[in-house]
Amino acid sequence: MAFDGLFCAAVAQELNKWSGARVEKIHQSSQSCFYFQLYHEGRRGNFVVSASASRPILAITEESVARPDTPTPTCMLYRKHLQNGRLVGAEWVENERIIRFLFDSADEMGYVKRKHLYAEMMGKCSNIILTDENDRILSAGSVSDITASVRRVMSGLLYELPPKQDKISVFAVDESAFLRLCEEKSGTPASAFFLKSFLGISPVVARELAFTALGGTDCEVGSHNAKALYCALESLLRRFKENDFVPCAVFDGEDNGVEYSFMPLTQYQSGTKMREYESFSLLLTDYFGRKEEAVNIGRYSHDMVRTVNTHLSRTQKKLGLLKNELDDCSAMEEMRIRGDVITANIYRIRQGDSSVTGIDYESGNEITVSLDIALNPAKNAQKYYKKYSKMKRASVVLAEQIKKAEAECDYLQSVLSFIDRAASPQELAEIKSELAEGGYLSDKSTGSKKKKTPASKPLSFTTTDGLLVRVGRNNKQNDALTGSAERNEIWFHIKGFHGSHVILTPDGNEEPTDRDYNEALMLAAYYSEKRGSRNVEVDYTRVRNLKKPSGSAPGFVTYEKYYSAVVDAINPFEK
Question: What is the CATH number of domain 5-140?
Answer without folding.
Answer: 2.30.310.10
